Amino acid sequence: MRIPLIPLVSGVLASLLFAAPATAGVLERSGPAPTGKSVQTGNPIYKSGKFEIKACEEQPIRPDDLDAARVYLEFVVDCLNTSWRDQMAKARLPFSKPRFATTSRTGVPTGCGKFPKGAQAVYCPLNKKITFLLDPGILSQATELFLFEVIAHEYGHHVQQLSGIMGAFNGRKYGNQKVYLAEVRKIELQAECLSGAFIGSVWRSLNRVESDFTYVVEAAYDTASHGSSKNIAHWLRRGFNAESPSACNTFTAPASKVA
To answer: How confident is the model at residue 34 (pLDDT cuts 50, 70, 90)?
Structure first.
């Protein structure tokens, strides 16, 4: 019997994006990512087609096993590296692997400050590093798809960084919190869609049942920074069904779909 954990759910779909102030140094360290007015609305990643790699082998895992969860995530990151390397090549975009680390507590350094309370995983664009919190909540449901989805979401932020989408977001000034949050939601909902696209592309190799994916989708809940549960579910399913970043242009979507 599945028993959704509220703290777990808030962490899964509230993986914090560190919107660091834009500086020349940050963009230089990001590599030769595209720039310009259309970097978000017309990014080459949208025309890269479907993922061609269709397999990702999940490692054995059981609830409440920290070491097994760490190994599990490392193998999923390897799958993500392989799939996204080919996808970025098709889009003629630069590629580099993200740094990756796990932690069992909040407050550890991430490169963009300390790991915050209330987040399950974070991506820092300054050092291109994903830090994943393996706490009792997510470890108790380790056999569910949460680990897989969260790491794929954070990798989506890495793709945004490599493709220039994140740099464009960080490079703007926002007049007020409302305007800022509206743009944050586009970033976060796109990461959900990119996560779904990867999951959909390897789904048949995972030997899972449809309810495993549905369980994660239905765990979404409303937040100001990530959007409504309805829209989170929409973009996650949209990516999953398309198996392609082409479905993930949140920057040209109607306002109702990124609220």
So the answer is: confident
